[in-house]
Amino acid sequence: MATRLVQIAMKAQDDSALGRFWAEALGWGIASEEPGVTNLEPEGVTYPDPSAIYIDILAVPDPKTVKNRVHVDLATTSTAHQADLVTRLQALGATPADVGQGDVPWTVLADPEGNEFCVLEPREIYRDTGPMAAVVVDCADPRAMARFWGEAMDWTVHKVTDDQAVLRSAEGVGPYLEFLRTPDEKTGWNRVHLDLRPYPGDDQAAEVARLRGFGATDLDIGQGDVPWTVLADPEGNEFCVLTPL
Fold first, then answer.
1. Phi/psi at 18 (nearest 5 deg)?
2. Per-residue pLDDT, 18
3. Which Gene3D superfamilies match (predicted)?
4. Alpha-carbon distance 116 to 68, whole Å?
5. Which pLDDT does position 31 carry in this prediction?
6. Where are the domains of the chain?
7. How far apart are the C-alpha atoms of 146 and 167, rounded to whole Å?
8. SS3 letters across the chain
9. Among residues 12, 52, 168, 188, which one has the fewest Cβ atoms lying within 10 Å of its Cβ?
10. Each residue of 204-233: pLDDT tens digit?
11. How many whole angstroms separate alpha carbon 218 and alpha carbon 229?
12. Furthest C-alpha separation in the chain
C-alpha cells in the first residue's frame, strides 16, 4: 500500500479571484466543483497525474496573518524568462515579499492574498517539472520529515541533509516536494497543506492506520463528516488523506 501527493489545498477569502491568479500564473485551466472551491489543473492532463501537483483553493473567512510554512516555487528556463515571469505576475496582482531572503538569485513574491512564493532562477534540476518546480515545506528536522514522508508516500527520496530533504514522484516526473530547515515555529493552522490519495483498489482506512504507525496523528480542524481524513505529520503539519482514485 502507498499514497501519493496529488494536490495542495490553499485557503483564500476569495477562492475565485485567487484561482484566476494562479491559473494565469501556471497557464492552467480552472473549474469549480462547488461553491467555495476552485480547482486548478494543467490542460490536457487527466487527474490525478504524477506530472503535476494540482491546486484546490478553498474559501475561508479568515485572512492570512503569518508567513506560510508551505509555498510554491515556480521554474524558469532562462534569466530573461525569470524577469518576464516576475513582471507578468506583478501585473496580475503579485507583490514583492521580504521573508528575510537577503541577496538571492530567486525572486520572492506574494499572491493577491499574501501567500508567499518564489520565482526561481534557471536550475537544471527543474528543467522538466513544468511551471511548478516544487512545493516547499518549512520544518525543524528535514531528516525526520524525509523518514516520515518517504514512508507515507511511494515517492523517491532524492536528497537528505541536515538542512534539506527532497522527494519526487517515483515516476520521475512533475514537481519536487522539499523540506527546508527553518528556525520559525509553527503557529496556527497551515494556510496551504498537502493532500494525499491512495491508489485505486487500496483501502483508505488502512492507509490512515499505516500513516498513524509512522507518527501521524488525528486532527480535528472542524471538518465535520467528510469523506477524507485529516492528519498531522510529526511536526504538526496538517494533511488530508483522500479517497482512493
1. -70, -35
2. 97
3. 2,3-Dihydroxybiphenyl 1,2-Dioxygenase, domain 1
4. 7
5. 86
6. 10-192
7. 8
8. CCEEEEEEEEEECCHHHHHHHHHHHHCCEEEEEECCEEEEECCCCCCCCCCCCEEEEEECCCCCCCCCCEEEEECCCCHHHHHHHHHHHHHHCCEECCCCCCCCCCEEEECCCCCEEEECCCCHHHCCCCCEEEEEEEECCHHHHHHHHHHHECCEEEEECCCEEEEECCCCCCCEEEEEECCCCCCCCCCEEEEEEECCCCCHHHHHHHHHHCCCEECCCCCCCCCCEEEECCCCCEEEECCCC
9. 188
10. 999 999 999 999 999 998 899 999 999 999
11. 8
12. 49
Residues 6 or more apart whose Cβ sits within 8 Å of residue 206? 1
What single letter denotes the amino acid at residue 92? L
Is the confidence at residue 23, as pLDDT, over 80?
yes
Flag whether pLDDT at 115 surpasses 90: yes
Q: Report the CATH fold assignment for 10-192.
A: 2,3-Dihydroxybiphenyl 1,2-Dioxygenase; domain 1 (3.10.180)
Question: How far apart (Å, rounded) are the C-alpha atoms in residues 192 and 188?
Answer: 12
Burial class, 157, CB count within 10 angstroms (exposed 0-12 / middle 13-18 / buried 19+): middle
Q: What is the pTM of this model?
A: 0.97
| C-alpha to C-alpha distances, 231 to 114, 153, 214, nearest whole angstrom | 25, 14, 12
Write out the three cell numbers for 179. 523540506
Cell of 147: 523518514
Buried b (16+ CB within 10 A) or exposed e, 124-144: eebeebbbbbbbbbbbbebbb
